Amino acid sequence: MSERESAVVDAVQKRLFIEGKWVDAADNGTFDVVDPATGTRLCAVANATPADGRAALEAAVAAQPAFGATSPRERADMLDGAFELLHERIDDLALLMTLEMGKPLAQSRGEIAYAAEFFRHFAGEAVRIDGGYLTAPAGGARLLIARQPVGPCLLITPWNFPMAMGARKLAPAIAAACTSVIKPAHQTPLSMLALMGILTEVGVPAGTVNCVTAMNAGAVIEPLIRSGLARKLSFTGSTRIGRMLLEQCAEKILRTSLELGGNAPFIVFEDADLDEAVDGAIAAKMRNMGEACTAANRIFVHSSIIDEFGRRLAARMAAMPVGRGTDERVQVGPLIDLAALQKVQSLVADAVRHGATVLTGGSATPGSGYFYPPTVLTGVPQDAAMADREIFGPVAPLIPFDAEAEVVAAANATEYGLVSYVFTNDLRRALRVAEALQTGMVGLNQGVVSNPAAPFGGIKQSGLGREGGASGIDEFLETKYVGIAMD
Ligand code: NAP
């Protein structure tokens, strides 16, 4: 590590953040955080025990009444403060994220800016929480409709967007006056620990936001869900874990928001602008090295243009520099760990066995770090494993199609329903297909849908609820109706 890299890692607190204090785990346990570009240890952070998890949740419960009574303007000021500090420290925070997660620095800076936008957006929402006052249809009685915070929340985030996924939950939770315990992924706890410092600096009161880092998430989180002390779970991660947590939440009927896995179809019709479609495919595929829930997972291209599209995409992907994300020239960093690398390798081998042709990439060079080269495969049959599973790597599988109805049916033939992308210059077709696709979001002639003002989320087994936009704060609010006698 360079001197600056060590300084950025050293500056972060590596303990649990409970009731406004930094504390060691009850048994003083720690676990290592690893740089995926080198496979070497960056530092160790506290490994929470179930008792620590309980203490964090009790702190959130104790803080709820006072935080629930803060004014919307006070909370908006805290959120605006977080927006400012994230921007002030963007370079150090981006470097920290690149070190723990691997993505290139420019993308890390982009993610910090994106995370900051959630704080700015929800500063606006905090002061616009609405209600209603109605006259009963039969006259006489009045109906007062108020919004109240759901109460203490459990927030669980994945490793692929270490700051943004936390910001997308914490900002609306704070705006809605909910207290919380957040648990970042064990691979990438440092960004969230850094954010705890920032939230303290901007005046978020002790106990309002608590952070536990843990190696054994299930042992810490399940008792909290079952305790009945939390009123809501907001989870971003895999469908497999989300399904399990939803079952656990059933016992105490917790409110749940789930942002789960995806298997995004990316459809290029014969009338699309090819350069625009290639740009879109690079954005939808290569952001985060393909480690995004929104990543284009199946690229359907009309058979009349698939050869030309494949040539152009392969040329662009082959030219992307791969390496440690701390080098500003790098556009493709390492995958998160060895298991991720092995999964991508086996999915590519399976596709080739099923008859796919490699246009570029296709095999990793052994060495330190978990690097996989940008890869384009064409003629991928729909029974290849990668057509059915999240690839989570820089691999673009091209699948030919001939008819609109055929591609819509193929795109919908998945248990997932997060996002789809459509490239066409025919307005009627664009709207027809966007309506027919079974996904919560559609990118029309664009390869990125993330936006703080958008209701981000999926249908089918990609999730429940929405994050961002006005819907984002609704997830943290209950509706209370007061019936008023007037006679
Ligand atoms: P994951 O394995 O499901 O883990 C997500 C989080 O859940 C981590 O903090 C993890 O902790 C925790 N966790 C694991 N087992 C748990 C348990 N038994 N009880 C409570 N918490 C538990 O997912 P991931 O590999 O980190 O992230 C990748 C997945 O997230 C992909 O499927 C991706 O599509 C999805 N994702 C979805 C969205 C969206 O908005 N829809 C956004 C980003 C990512 P540990 O790290 O300690 O295991």
Q: Tell me the total number of β-strands.
A: 20
**CATH topology group of the largest domain:** Aldehyde Dehydrogenase, Chain A, domain 1
Bound molecules: NADP nicotinamide-adenine-dinucleotide phosphate
Please estimate the helix content.
Answer: 25-40%
Mean pLDDT: 97
Q: Distance N terminus to C terminus?
A: 75 Å
Describe this structure in words.
This protein is an alpha/beta fold and 487 residues long. The protein folds into 2 domains: 3-260 and 462-482, Aldehyde Dehydrogenase, Chain A, domain 1, CATH 3.40.605.10; 265-444, Aldehyde Dehydrogenase, Chain A, domain 2. Helix content is 40%, strand content 20%. The protein has helices spanning 3-10, 50-68, 72-88, 90-101, 105-126, 164-175, 190-201, 217-227, 239-252, 274-286, 306-318, 338-353, 404-412, 427-436, 469-474; strands spanning 16-18, 21-23, 30-35, 40-46, 132-135, 142-149, 153-156, 180-183, 209-211, 232-236, 255-259, 264-268, 296-302, 357-360, 375-378, 395-401, 419-423, 441-444, 463-464, 477-484. It has a 7-stranded mixed sheet, sandwiched between helices. Strand 1 (16-18) and strand 2 form a beta hairpin. The protein is globular, with a radius of gyration of 23 Å. The structure holds NADP nicotinamide-adenine-dinucleotide phosphate (NAP). NADP nicotinamide-adenine-dinucleotide phosphate (NAP) is lined by residues 156-161, 165, 183, 185-186, 217-218, 221, 236-238, 241, 245, 259-262, 293, 390, 418, 458, 463. The site of NADP nicotinamide-adenine-dinucleotide phosphate has 27 residues, from helix 8 and helix 9. Pfam families: Aldedh.
